[in-house]
């Protein structure tokens, strides 16, 4: 049973690593395109650095278990994140679509880290909990920021559209 818990935890860690690589493939294209929403760009830039640190934490946890990330999972989820970013770039309300998708993705990450923390506790991997908790905290902060700023972003989007200015990003 302990080996099953270890295997489940390792799979979850590899999935989380791929998930964070997917996050990078979503954030980076958004940052390249944002021109009119500096508050969003600044927060995404901060979260980009957080996400890179989260990947390092996950790699450290995997290494402590003599495991490595899954290159295939990383590549597949990165590709899907890039496709989502491309899809949103064609929308007239790109900034809103990105805001909605980012909020949903942050909540997905929150659920994943909550689950991983439980698996770490059940499997006796207490050394992993602090790093996972740090990742969870950063995702919760980003989700809260997105929720708290959706009204401002939407108001700015509408005002720009009404003024005939570029409202996309």
TrEMBL record:
Residues 41-68 form a coiled coil. It comes from the Bacteria. The keyword Coiled coil applies. Keywords: Coiled coil. Transmembrane segments: none annotated. It holds the Pfam family DUF892. Signal peptide: none annotated. This is Ferritin-like domain-containing protein.
């Amino acid at each position: 049973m302990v080996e099953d818990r270890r295997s489940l935890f390792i799979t979850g860690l590899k999935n989380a690593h791929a998930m964070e690589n997917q996050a990078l493939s979503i954030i980076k294209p958004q940052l390249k395109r944002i021109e009119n929403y500096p508050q969003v760009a600044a927060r995404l830039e901060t979260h980009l650095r957080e996400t890179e640190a989260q990947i390092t934490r996950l790699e450290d946890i995997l290494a402590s278990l003599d495991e490595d990330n899954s290159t295939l999972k990383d590549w597949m989820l990165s590709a899907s994140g890039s496709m989502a970013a491309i899809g949103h770039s064609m929308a007239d309300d790109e900034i809103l679509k990105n805001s909605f998708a980012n909020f949903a993705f942050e909540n997905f990450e929150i659920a994943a880290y909550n689950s991983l923390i439980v698996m770490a506790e059940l499997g006796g991997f207490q050394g992993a909990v602090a790093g996972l908790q740090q990742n969870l905290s950063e995702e919760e902060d980003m989700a809260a920021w997105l929720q708290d700023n959706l009204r401002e972003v939407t108001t700015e989007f509408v005002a720009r559209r009404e003024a005939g200015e570029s409202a996309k990003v």
